[in-house]
Fold these 4 entries.
Entry 1:
Amino acid sequence: MYSTENKRIHYFYNGIFYTRKLNNFVEDILFEKLYGGESLLKKILRVSKDSKISFSSSMINENSIKPWLRSGWAIGHKLNVCMLNLKNLNIKNVDGHKNIEIKKLEGEDIQYLLDLDHKIFDDYWKNSKASFEETMKSCNNNYLFKSGEGNDLDGYAILGETRKFTYLQRIGIVKDYQGSGLGDNLLQSVVDFALKRKFLNIKLNTQNDNVSALSLYKKNNFQIMPRKLVIMKTS
């Protein structure tokens, strides 16, 4: 009922929500609440216990978690929100980054990106086909940055854009190449592309305990915002 590949909407008397399988590597079910309060959250917690299903919420603002905690949910992951204001930056090296191909993200890219994505991220954070499709729908335009030579890719990034505001939806380097400077090269190519297009800012989120990623973003002038995002879990 809940473990579907794509999002499925559910109507309960006390709320409305989406579910789908998180990915093929963990058993968690994504829970995205559209409407409902503590009675719905308590109901889902009972479903979790009765059916031995672990639900992970979509990202919510840290200031909104009290009803979740009162309902018996627990904090699963904390995420930092980082932002780069592009207005005060100068274009330094547009189109000069080594081995970076930039193109519009298309449906035909998803399959090879899945294979690449699964070489980069730990199991919980690996993308599914459905999550890539949701990424494509979330912004007016999505730009794919491919790091590597030809078909031998070592990383990628996705920059989503809507009305000059941009969101770094995904960025990563294959684990065997992490720490080699490729991530810095990839991120700088994203920033220079955004500057050239006169976008206003770049936002992203990253795990609170991902020290290497936070260091990379700080090095490239991203500011850590005061607010945090949280993923809640039933178990």
Note: Residues 8-79 form one domain.
Entry 2:
Amino acid sequence: MQRVQKGFTLIEIMISVAIVGILMAVAIPAYSDYVIRGRLSEAFTALGGAQPAAEQFWSNNRTYFGFGTASSFPPNTANFTYGLGGATASSYTITATGVGKMAGFVYTIDQSGTRTTTGSPPGWGVSGSCWVDHKGGACSN
């Protein structure tokens, strides 16, 4: 009479667990970076939309002063707060500051369209000419 083997051996289970562990060690950090980059697009969209709104405000008022209280100014969200700094008759700087899980990220845009990254968490980097959206200081915008 032959005996039929049923189930898995301990070695087979240990190898499967090791493979799953290696895959998780690679997948979780990559997924976390992906989620952060998705949340960054919120700030990029708001700042990019605020620039033409500021120009419209200026054409109506001949100053940027007061744009921070205009209805077209980006509202604060769960991930970013927006502020208007240095608003004069001819210049402004709009700042998006990360809050909560996005704390540490600080992006700006000014009246000439200059995009800067003035703050970021360790490993992301800063830039005086673009919005950093990848670790290592890389920009794709």
Note: The chain has a mean pLDDT of 93.
Entry 3:
Amino acid sequence: MTEEIINRVANSKLVTINLEDYYPQGQRILFDVKDWLFEGLVLREKDFREQVKNYDWSQFQDKYVALTCSSDAIIPAWAFLLLSISLESYAKKTVIGNLELLETTIYQDVLNNLDVSEFKNKSIIIKGCSKKPVPQNAYIMLAHKLKPLVKSIMYGEACSSVPLFKNK
């Protein structure tokens, strides 16, 4: 006599949220201004403005762009602003920083617009592992957004989750 195997995870009322499902499509680009500086260190305003004016910004159409400078040069704030203004008509999003900061700000936009009302009074598992570059900050933002609504928050997989929060 064999007993039927019951999948308790499948039958549970747990709701899994996978941040990877909300990953926006679009290429991520790191734009380094170092190559536009005199000897990689000095920003000459006239030369810099000329390069901005003559650059083909259309190559950034529908892409996400992080502006950075990999040299030890001190870049005035207006230079990054000038670049962002040039990118504004093309790029989906522009930030000053690295690719991780770019991903964080992309997810901040996604999560700010995410309707979480369907999760009210539910037990939530925030899925941990992902194949896409979901930044750690996105998990924090999601947990903070869910906390006032949900019954509980766990992290990981249904078979091995870590409890994080339980509403009293």
Note: The CA atoms of residues 5 and 91 lie 52 Å apart.
Entry 4:
Amino acid sequence: MNNLLELAVRIFNDTLPKSCDAAFLYSQTPQNQPSVAIAGKKIVKNNLADKLLIMQTKAMSGYGGFQFFKDELLENAIPESKIEGVRSDDDKMLHTLIESLSVVEHCKEKNYKSLLVCATPFHQLRAYMTAVSATLRIYPELKVYSYTGEPFSWTESVVHSQGKTEGKRAELIHGEIERIKIYGEKGDLISVDETLAYLNQRA
């Protein structure tokens, strides 16, 4: 538990480089998408990344789709030239692991060396751990940093997890911790200690 607390504090307060090659905004349901769109605006405004990466898929699994997300980014005054689509081999489902594997493959193909990953706050811990898991599997040279989405009301009920889970944002944290345990046991996710080791060697 102490190591999980250390990991959470470090992920939510990551030490960032002056700029990364790209930032990946994890797909969210429409209620939570503004969280990462606002974060994307701040990333661009502060020159923290050269490109904003989003999944280039149709609407599915609770995600509004590439064009829906892109339109919101444009409404947040993000130049179209900054937005880059990430393709997935799976055209029937979208979830955190599929997104993570897809974006790491994308970074490898583009020869990107550094990546910010951004999800809504209750999802950020698992999203970052999944991104690092994919990185160590596919492209260990990639340096992955954490940038948390904009916080919204923790007591508001929202839909999450492929559009199938509903609850107050604060309640969804507990589900995320449970998924970290389940996916770790399945082998889809590296452990808390392995993620801490990655952060220590990355720094």
Note: The beta strands are 20-25, 49-55, 83-86, 114-118, 143-146, 157-160, 165-168.
